[in-house]
Design goal:
Blueprint (H helix, E strand, L loop, with lengths): L1 H32 L16 H8 L5 E10 L4 E4 L4 E6 L6 E2 L4 E5 L2 H12 L1 H37 L5 H47 L2 E3 L4 E6 L6 E2 L4 E7 L3 E8 H4 L7 E6 L5 E10 L21 E11 L7 E7 L3
Antiparallel strand pairs: 1-10, 1-14, 2-9, 3-5, 3-8, 4-7, 5-6, 7-9, 10-13, 11-12, 11-14, 12-13
Helix pairs in contact: 3-5, 4-5
Length: about 325
C-alpha cells in the first residue's frame, strides 16, 4: 500500500510539473506578444518571483514529506572526564541505564589522597602554635598591667619626694617595652590564625580535587557509547562516553522552503521505514524553526551547492515501533487534520 501511495504521488507530481511547464510557456509567450498590443509601461517586471507563480499554479497538498533522523529529544550528551588521571575502573557499559549522579568511571586518586593527608597533618602543629601564641599574649598583657602599676607607684612616690626621677624614667621605659612586646605577641597570634585559614583552604582544595576523580552522570539516561578503557590516561577535556538523557524521542527532519510556511506545531506525522516502506510510528510536530537554513541533516558534502533552503522540524514520537538513534526514516507530516 505504501509503494502504491508513492507511485500515485509520483504521477501527481508529474502532472503538476507539466502544468508548471505549460504556465511558463504561456507566461513567456505573453511577454513576446505583449509589446505589439500595449505600451511598454505595461510590460511585467522581468525579475518577477517564479516561486510566487509556482504557488499560484501548483495546489498545496495536504501533506509534506521528508527524510528524518531519529534522535533523543534532549540531544545526545558527550560527557567529559573533568579531571586528569589514569582510569582505574569503568563502571558502566553501552545500553546501560544510569541515574542522575551515578558514578560512571573512577580515576586514580592516590596523589590527591596523599596531598589531602599532608594538608590535614598540619592542623595539629598549627593548633599547638596557636595555644602558645595565646599564652604568650596573655603573659604580655599581665606584664603590661604590672608595668603600668609600677609606673603609677613611682610617680606617686616622686610626688612625695620618696622616689627619684630616674626611677620614674626607668619605669616608663619598661612600660613602653611591655606595650611593644604585647603588640608583637598579638601579631604572632594573628599570624598563627592566618596559617590556620591557609591550611583549611588547602584541605578544601585537595578535597575538591579528590571529588573530581569520581565522574558522575549529570542526568539520568541511557549510555550509548563508552569511549575509554581502564588503564588509559585522560585529561579534563577527554570525552569518556555518550548517552541519551531520559526523555522523548524525536524524528528530526527538514522541510523544503516551498512548503515551510504550511508546517505548524501540533500537526500530526507518521514515519516509515526506508527499507520496507511500512509505517513505524506516529507523532506530533513539537518544533518548527522560525527561519530557513541550508540543508544540514543529510548533506553528502560540506561544499555541496544548494538552490533551496529548508526549515528544521522536530516530531515527537509517541507510539509505534521506535527505530534506534541515528536511523534514517521517511517522515510524512499532515498539514490539515
Amino acid at each position: 500500500m505504501y509503494h502504491q501511495w508513492i507511485l500515485d504521488l509520483s504521477i501527481d507530481r508529474i502532472m503538476e510539473t507539466l502544468k508548471y511547464i505549460g504556465f511558463i510557456i504561456l507566461f513567456y509567450g505573453h511577454l513576446i506578444f505583449l509589446p505589439a498590443c500595449s505600451a511598454p509601461a505595461s510590460v511585467p517586471d522581468q525579475g518577477a518571483d517564479i516561486t510566487d507563480s509556482l504557488r499560484s499554479v501548483l495546489p498545496l497538498k495536504n501533506e509534506v514529506f521528508g527524510v528524518a533522523r531519529i534522535e533523543p529529544e534532549n540531544e545526545i550528551v558527550s560527557l567529559n572526564a573533568g579531571a586528569s588521571g589514569k582510569i582505574l575502573e569503568v563502571l558502566v557499559k553501552a545500553n546501560q541505564m544510569v541515574e542522575k549522579g551515578q558514578e560512571v568511571i573512577r580515576l586514580d586518586e592516590a596523589l590527591e589522597l596523599a596531598q589531602l593527608a599532608q594538608a590535614k597533618s598540619k592542623r595539629i602543629p598549627q593548633k599547638a602554635d596557636e595555644v602558645v601564641a595565646i599564652a604568650n599574649l596573655d603573659q604580655a598583657r599581665l606584664d603590661l598591667v604590672q608595668a603600668e602599676r609600677d609606673l603609677k607607684l613611682a610617680e606617686d612616690l616622686l610626688a612625695g619626694s620618696a622616689e627619684t626621677r630616674q626611677t620614674v624614667i626607668e619605669r616608663q621605659e619598661l612600660l613602653d617595652r611591655r606595650k611593644q612586646q604585647m603588640a608583637i605577641m598579638d601579631a604572632s597570634l594573628q599570624q598563627t590564625k592566618a596559617n590556620q585559614s591557609e591550611i583549611e583552604s588547602d584541605i578544601f582544595y585537595y578535597q575538591t580535587q579528590l571529588s573530581q576523580k569520581k565522574v558522575n552522570a549529570p542526568l539520568a539516561g541511557q549510555v550509548l557509547n563508552v569511549l575509554v578503557n581502564p588503564g588509559e590516561y585522560v585529561t579534563n577535556a577527554t570525552t569518556i562516553l555518550e548517552y541519551a538523557p531520559t526523555g522523548g524521542i524525536i524524528a528530526n527532519t527538514e522541510v523544503d522552503e516551498f512548503f515551510a510556511e504550511a508546517v505548524k506545531e501540533g500537526q500530526k506525522a507518521v514515519i516509515y521505514s526506508q527499507l520496507t516502506g511500512e509505517e513505524l510510528a506516529r507523532g506530533t510536530v513539537i518544533f518548527a524553526a522560525e527561519y530557513l537554513s541550508q540543508k544540514s541533516l543529510f548533506k553528502n558534502q560540506s561544499t555541496e551547492l544548494e538552490d533551496r533552503r529548508v526549515r528544521e522540524v522536530k516530531v515527537r514520537l509517541d507510539q509505534g515501533t521506535i527505530p534506534i538513534y541515528g536511523s534514517r526514516v521517511d517522515c510524512r507530516i499532515f498539514l490539515k487534520p
